[in-house]
From TrEMBL:
PROSITE patterns in the record: SAM_OMT_I
Keywords: Methyltransferase, S-adenosyl-L-methionine, Transferase
InterPro entries named in the record: Cation-dep_OMT (IPR050362), SAM-dependent_MTases_sf (IPR029063), SAM_O-MeTrfase (IPR002935)
Keyword S-adenosyl-L-methionine: yes
Organism domain of life: Bacteria
Residue ranges the record marks as coiled coil: none
GO molecular function term, any single one: S-adenosylmethionine-dependent methyltransferase activity
Keyword flag Methyltransferase: yes
Name the record gives this protein: Caffeoyl-CoA O-methyltransferase
GO biological process, one term: methylation
Amino acid sequence: MIQVVGWVTLILYSAGRVDMCMDRTSYADSLLPNDPVLSHVLRTLDEHGLPQMSVRPMLGQLLTVLSRGCQRALEIGTYAGYSGICIARGLAPGGRLVSLEQRERHAELAADNFRAARLAEIVDIRIGDALEQLEMLVIEGGEPFDLVFIDADKPRYGLYLETVLPLCREGAWIVCDNVLARDRVLDPDNQNPTPAAMRHFNQSLFHHPRLTSALLPIYDGIALMRVGHASD
């Protein structure tokens, strides 16, 4: 019999012997080499009394993989800069990351962490409501984005997606974190705002005319989308 307790799997044998091993996601995370820059970001959260809500290591690695060679990336939800560092590391020479953060305290901490990572010169942190900032980006124009990462208030994921699509290049990647809402989307009777919104959002991804989508049931759920041609 197998039981999962936290990040550890207990394998219970009939003879009474108990073995302990990592679960799949912990095993995957353990494959990544120690990263002093990202470890520093996690320490700064503890030092500032903030919760450890950064993306998990292998999702950070996925963001680096997807950003490889990109010229322009957008992040909705900066927090302490962990995911932004992962994105910025993969950008092509001359590439830039625009990162939107509502809370000034988080933006200031992220700015310090980008400086510590020697990436501050290629990251533009914008403070304020994300939808308002996205509308400003539409007005400003500029080159389209090659990669978008959304990790912000879950009930507005649908609004973020529709607002950001006109800013995306054909072939761009869009990644959304926490789409399983701590497994609350699994209960159809749970009609609280976040799980209800995420269920609707997840379903919409597979009927959207511009998106080719996949939902990866790892961590708290990752939605991965490729942007197609805009219809006239």
